[in-house]
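Collaborator request, handled under Task 6.
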Amino acid sequence: MTGGGGGLHRGRVTGGPGTGAHWWGGRGPAGGGTHAARVGGRRGVLLIALLAVLLLGGVAAAVALTRTSNTPSPTAASPVAPAPGPSTTSRAAGAPDVAVLQQTIDEVLVATPLRFPADSATPNPGADDVVDRLAAVLEASPGPAVTVEGHTAPTGEDSGDARVLSQQRAEDVVRRLEAAGVPAGSLTAVGVGPRDPLGSLEASRRVELRVG
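Structure tokens returned to the collaborator:
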């Protein structure tokens, strides 16, 4: 069988009964062989294009995965320990400043001194108010050692040993401070005697507090 268009014929069969049938793939415009070759070529191009797309897609996915794995993850900033300040290096935490405590005590005693009559170990009237103020200061700043110094005037003290009298004055104030709330044993009484007089005899008969 033959026809005018190669696209409608894939070849022809010749022969007959007893001779065997033969397939002829036709050439030229009327032959099916040329049409079959074109179809096969298109399928090859499509297959190659499909493989290229798959290959390019795999490469893109691999590149994206590589970038993701190589991206550094954010890390938390390491805490920085604060540098020790003067408050942590000069004295223990919570300990009072000795200089400030001494200044506060001095201000109290300048305003209302602890003075004594001549030859007496009992302070002048009004001493209890001064003792209460000093006790409040010491209780607010516990810790440092405090020495209670008793003094006598360089003259006018007729009680015999001036150092003994000055010690008695210091011990009397210590007892009063402890009665006002200062912990027992945190104060030390010391008799200085007349070696550190002030401008007058009355001012010299006194008790002072020294911190440290």
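The cover message to the collaborator said: "Strands lie at 12-14, 22-24, 114-115, 146-151, 187-193, 206-211. Helices lie at 32-70, 86-89, 98-111, 127-140, 162-179, 201-204. Please let us know whether this matches your experimental observations."
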